[in-house]
Amino acid sequence: MRFYGALRKHIPITFWTMTAGTLAITGVGIAGFVGFAGFYSKDAILEAAFGSGTAVGGFAFWMGIAAALMTSFYSWRLVFLTFFGKPRWIQSEHIQHAVHDAHGHGHDDHAHDDHAHEDHTDDDHAVAELGSRGPDYTQHGDGTGGYHPHESPLVMLLPLLILSIGAVAAGFVFNHAFVSEGTGEFWKGALVFHEHLIHAMHGVPTWVKWAPFTVMSLGLLIAWYGYIKNLSFPKAVAEQLGPVYTFVFRKWMFDELYHNIFVRPAFWLGKVFWKVLDIGVIDKFGPDGAAWVVARGSTYAQKVQSGYLYSYALVMLLGLVGAISWVIAG
Amino acid sequence: MSGFPILSLMLLVPLAAALACLYLDAKSARTVALLATLANLALGVVLWLNFDVGGAQWQFQERHELFSGFSYALGIDGIALLLIELSVFLMPICIGASWNSIEKRVGEYMAAFLLVETLMIGVFTAQDIFLFYMFFEAGLIPMYLIIGIWGGADRIYASYKFFLYTLLGSVLMLVAMLWMVHTAGTTFIPTLMTYDFDPQVQTWLWLAFFASFAVKMPMWPVHTWLPAAHVQAPTAGSVILAGVLLKMGGYGFIRFSLPMFPEASAYFAPLVWGLSMAAVVITSLIALVQDDMKKLIAYSSVAHMAVVTIGLFAFNVQGLEGSMLVMLSHGLVSGALFLCVGIIYDRLHTREISRYGGLAINMPRYALFFLLFTMASIGLPGTSGFVGEFLSLGGIYQASSWTALICTTGIILGAAYMLYLYRRVVFGDQKNADAAAMADLDLREYLMVIPLGLAVLWMGVYPESFIAPMRADIAALDARLARAKPEGDAKLAMGKEKPAHEEAAAHEGAH
Fold first, then answer.
1. Which ranges constitute the DSSP H helices of A189-282?
2. Is residue A128 part of a domain?
3. Is residue B66 helix, strand or coil?
4. Which of A102, B71, B349, B461 could form a disulfide with A107 if both were Cys (CB 3.0 to 4.6 A apart)?
5. Do the chains contact at B416 and A266, CB–CB below 8 Å?
């Protein structure tokens, strides 16, 4: 998204399907009237949580409202950064290489692959910088770098169109059959229809019914301010938050935690089990050890059977001496 | 169909072809071997179609007395039927996998493989305990030659390790067999399966059989021959080793140890659980750190076979059916995975994971099949791996919840090492120019991976086809084990009935 911008005019069908999806996922709709697919499910869940009247239900309601606010903010942020504003394509190393290759020695798919690795490291640098300094979405001059994106082929557009129809209309069409009274025919008891809760859900105060829509609008507004109106705002926020921003940017350090708690010990244990247990103990004292004993044993046994008459005579003589000593001593 | 000695014919076809191959040149030996294995596959289909599901326990029986109680007795039940089907299904694929990659002594190679087929079918059809022993042990010889002659650089070490490991255990089994025949007065396996040996003696007999089957299986800690053998064996050798020969251990448990020594089996069940838990965790972690593709899959086989042993020693129908399905599934999936390794090994002649990468770009169709078998190995629902593992773990949960808990980590670790392998080989950048230049599957390779892929999906989507023939045999075994069944620690209880008023409310709401 950092390297997109202004794609609205270049890939209009993708833009409109994306917008339909965003409207649905942020739960846009007018309470009690009509809305996109996400509106019906989100509102039903939040109202039921509030309507249950329990402490847990209330907690779930407020958490849900907070999540709705953030969903709206990040979804619209995605749309604004990607499809609105000025192109920032030139900032991407990937695009730079592609354009360079196209101008230099003909664009082919291999150029793409050859640079994939370098590009990766460039991105890593960019990410590391972002983690400490915050994002920069300003772009001066023509940010296209002479690159012109094109709409996806039909194989991609058709699924997009079909899915966006669902995003727009699925809630309106199926709401009655799924979550209203008379759902018995569809669920046939697979889900328990809790009549009290449904009544409580319909009876929640008006502000509860309007709360999701309000936070959705608030999220939209913040996203609009930060990513269309005042592009230096996100950077200012990131700098203000400092370590908090870095922590969240690094995904709460989950990758690092998992790497140290699970991945590294698993690999270390695997190596120990393999090198020490399998090779060092089982094989050493098992088959290889047995083979060693046999080899050594046969070397000694071989020496005894030398075939020389005098050594046999010596053994006989020793035996005879031993036997006589035993008889005399006994 | 009754009276026609189809089992003998299935032993004879590959044996005759093996003899012929010894005297043929490379080209005709390949053709003869392929035709013979296909003919046996056709016979296998006829056998399955004529198998009377729900009929007599033992079918297609043949019996000829030879001398002093020893007889040529063949016959199969549902369990043996499925393992025979697995064998005859994998054999043409093995011949196909060796088509171009084996260049020296082709006639002898094909003869060795056809002999392996005869001996494998012999193991699963024998009804005389000594006949079984002969087939069981003789199978070592051609396999020893296949690894020792047509194997990789370290083939001599691997073949000796394989031979001595497996032989040592089997000698104890022979002693136990002699004692059993002397006591029970018969060599006929179905009779022995219902003979009640003195529980005290059972302990010793069980241990003697365990020495053989545990090595064959292989169970931890007597598994170290397997990685060596797999790494050195030619592709087809690995396929048949993982696909069928490992199943002889499981077959031995289900045919001998469990029905003949129920009390001893129950007594030693905690030992088996312990070794299985160790195997799942230890060998899965070892698989995770391998750089050699074949070694990785070999170690994963040990972990999967441990799921078989916990299912067998769960002492319930779920566990037994699960372990049989894991055996069949693992036969297909690990065979297919070794084949997938072989396909790229034929092109680049290395098993080093790091020498590949980005194959999805230049070998997309190969990547598709490799992914299917990877997913089946992990146990993705819809593939064969899921059904058996789920049943096995469900079965052992009723007997020992701790064993179930520890062994379930095998599914997570399995996903870890298989996806890590797939990611390094198929995804990522094309790091090596020679790997990036490899061609996608050719017709011969399609003909090998497509049937395997279909079978994996068939078993995953409709396992009933494979459970139905053995259902009665598993039930009979379960009934026989009932008297010794260890009490489980899970204490499963039925869920409570829903209170009446809630039910009514739900209905009111509905209308």
1. 195-202, 206-224, 233-241, 243-249, 254-258, 264-271
2. yes
3. strand
4. A102
5. yes
Domain boundaries, chain B: 262-485
Which residue is it, tokens 């090595």?
A: B215
Instruction: Show the tokens assigned to B305.
Output: 């076979």
Residue A183 counted as domain residue: yes
- For testing contact with chain A, the best of B230, B289, B424, B501 (most A CBs within 10 A): B289
Tens of pLDDT, residues B122-172:
999 999 999 999 999 998 889 888 988 888 888 888 888 888 888 888 888
Domain-located, residue A214: yes
Q: What is the pLDDT of residues B28-87, one digit of tens each?
A: 889 999 999 999 999 999 999 988 888 888 888 888 888 777 889 899 999 999 999 999
pLDDT of residue A112: 43
> Quick check: A273 contacting B, CB < 8 Å?
yes
**Is the peptide bond prior to B142 cis by the omega test (within 30 degrees of 0)?**
no
Closest-approach residue (CA) in chain A for B503:
A192
**Is B509 in contact with A189 (Cβ distance < 8 A)?**
no
Domains contained in chain A, number: 1
Tokens of B166: 């497996």
Q: Quick check: A278 contacting B, CB < 8 Å?
A: yes
Coil, strand or helix at B195: coil
| Sign of the four-CA dihedral B279, B237, B80, B328 | positive
Q: How many CA atoms lie within 13 A of B501 on its CB side?
A: 0
- Cβ-Cβ contacts under 8 Å, B510 against chain A: 182-185, 189, 193
